[in-house]
Design goal:
This protein is mostly helical. The chain has one domain. The protein is 68% helix and 0% strand. It has three helices and no strands. Helix 2 runs antiparallel to helix 3.
């Protein structure tokens, strides 16, 4: 069995296609001169922070819609089970409804509250 090393051996194994990272230093070179200045690093950091904040807002929006959808569908589920003559199932679902609604409300309010506190503390990221 032949071994390969990376010390000048032309037969050295190449790593599998590397996943492109959002922290790639080459992306910070905005003017393409091959030199990454502090201003370019600052701009890259600001762009990454904006992308992260945008992704977080999207996650909050999706969570809010999912919770709203669940709150609207839950009573429909009780009606459907009752309509199929599954009165015991309908009663069991109805019995846990207050816990479900309270849990969703606490989850959503805690998430929004933590986000609001982070926003107050974070302020601007200019240092």
């Amino acid at each position: 069995m032949q071994r390969y090393n990376n010390k000048g051996n032309s037969m050295a194994r190449k790593p599998a296609a590397e996943k492109e990272s959002k922290y790639d230093i080459k992306k910070a070179d905005h003017n393409g001169d091959g030199v990454v200045t502090e201003e370019e690093l600052r701009m890259q950091k600001m762009m990454l922070e904006m992308e992260d904040e945008d992704a977080q807002r999207d996650a909050i929006r999706k969570m809010a819609w999912f919770a709203l959808f669940g709150l609207l569908v839950y009573p429909i589920g009780i009606g459907i089970t009752s309509g199929f003559g599954l009165d015991t199932a309908a009663q069991l679902i109805a019995d846990i409804a207050p816990t479900y609604f309270a849990s969703i409300a606490v989850l959503v309010s805690a998430f929004f509250g933590a986000d609001a506190l982070k926003g107050k503390r974070g302020g601007s990221s200019d240092e």
